[in-house]
UniProtKB/TrEMBL annotation:
Residues 280-386 form the DUF4367 domain. PROSITE patterns: PROKAR_LIPOPROTEIN. It comes from the Bacteria. The chain crosses the membrane at residues 9-29. Pfam families: DUF4367. This is DUF4367 domain-containing protein. InterPro entries: DUF4367, LolA/LolB/LppX, Sporulation_related. Keywords: Membrane, Transmembrane, Transmembrane helix. The keyword Transmembrane helix applies.
């Protein structure tokens, strides 16, 4: 699968639906209910854990990611992971469901707080990148305890999730559920009636530490499970663990060494000037009101893009993404349907919870997509037809 298509499907599925966290949301509204769940509130200074992420389709295992992670003081972090695909995954590749090849099945990432070094054994290459870009260049680094720490503590993370998901899901909590040697609080979040495109989410939370031992997200025929097989809070970790010695004769690739603009809000004129190609946008506020436009560039080896976020009159959010390209992405053909937007050839992709329309015109590749199922295909087509080009 191409890196771009993989990021579309997995980023929104794993992060938005599996974790269900929106940074900055208050968790106190649920604290009265959840306070009885567990006893502790462990602040993490250091951490070691071993976990795995499994992906299933129609009950068959597609892939497994095993990883070990360490957190040190002062934002030091290390993760070692190995990605394994199954025959079902290979069959999906052969049938055209998934395009492209796996770039690497094993990697070691180490950050000292300022930069991240990623070593790929299969290629014998060291990649060095600013830590501010690590999450987008390599989404794996977002996973696990690093994601939890953005909420402040294990307790805040768990309560924040329950508070956030309760607006769209019916939440049930069950005490004293045994899993993997831990006594957990089991949380089941089922989408409320009419909430299309939402995942059913299950959490198993350790009653002693608030640690999310296991999480499971189910949407349609897709399941993603993440489980810690072992973890230790605040262990002693050798500081040398966060140092990666690079051999003098090693092949090193520097990513974004001189990048000044990473993710910045821009005007439409600035968007055109910086992207250096025309951009598609919706000028009529009666159709959709622009929330913001952002210029994003994660590395010189990946792509620069402009993302314009809009709200429909009903309050539904969708995104128009522009990037330089003169043709559709062949690797993006995930059961796609060929359609037309005006006189332009386009493709429509629906891979729950996403719906995407993609077309290319005048040197610009435009993706119009919605992250959940609230906007129908027909409505998305009308929004695409309302796009105009700005040069």
């Amino acid at each position: 699968m191409s890196k771009r298509a993989w990021n579309y499907i997995l980023y929104f599925f794993l992060v938005s639906n599996l974790l269900g966290i929106t940074s900055g949301c208050s968790f106190f509204a649920s604290e009265g209910v959840a306070e009885a769940m567990v006893q502790g509130d462990e602040t993490i200074n250091t951490f070691y854990g071993e976990a795995e992420i499994n992906q299933y389709q129609d009950g068959e295992l597609l892939s497994k990611t095993n990883y070990k992670e360490w957190k040190g003081d002062k934002n030091k972090y290390r993760i070692e992971y190995k990605f394994t695909i199954t025959d079902a995954y290979k069959e999906a590749v052969d049938n055209g469901l998934i395009k492209g090849e796996i770039e690497a099945d094993e990697e070691i990432d180490v950050t000292n707080g300022d930069q991240l070094i990623a070593y790929v054994p299969a290629k014998d290459i060291y990649y060095i990148k600013p830590v501010s870009l690590a999450d987008e260049v390599n989404p794996t680094v977002c996973q696990g305890i690093n994601q939890v720490l953005r909420s402040g503590s294990l307790k805040e993370y768990a309560l924040e999730f329950i508070n956030e998901v309760s607006s769209s899901h019916d939440v049930t909590i069950k005490d004293n559920v045994k899993i993997g040697g831990y006594t957990t609080q089991y949380v089941l979040a089922v989408p409320k009636q009419g909430k299309l495109g939402e995942a059913t989410v299950e959490l198993w939370i350790d009653q002693d530490s608030w640690m999310v031992i296991k999480s499971k997200s189910t949407i349609g025929n897709l399941i993603v499970e993440q489980e810690y097989k072992d973890f230790t809070l605040n262990p002693r970790i050798d500081k040398e663990k966060f140092i990666m010695d690079i051999p003098k004769d090693a092949k090193v690739v520097h990513l974004d060494e001189n990048l000044d603009i990473v993710n910045q809000e821009v005007s439409l004129k600035e968007a055109v000037d910086w992207l250096k190609v025309p951009i598609f946008y919706i000028p009529d506020e009666k159709v959709a009101k622009m929330k913001e436009a952002r210029y994003i560039e994660t590395s010189n080896q990946i792509y620069a893009r402009v993302e314009i976020t809009y709200l429909t009159p009903e309050g539904e959010e969708f995104i128009v993404q522009n990037m330089p390209s003169s043709k559709l992405q062949e690797s993006f053909e995930l059961n796609c349907e060929k359609i037309k937007i005006g006189d332009v050839e386009a493709i429509f992709v629906e891979q729950a919870p996403l719906k995407i329309i993609e077309f290319a015109k005048e040197g610009t590749l435009c993706d119009l997509y919605v992250k959940n199922g609230e906007i129908s295909k027909e409505e998305l087509v009308k929004l695409a037809e309302a796009l105009e080009i700005k040069k």
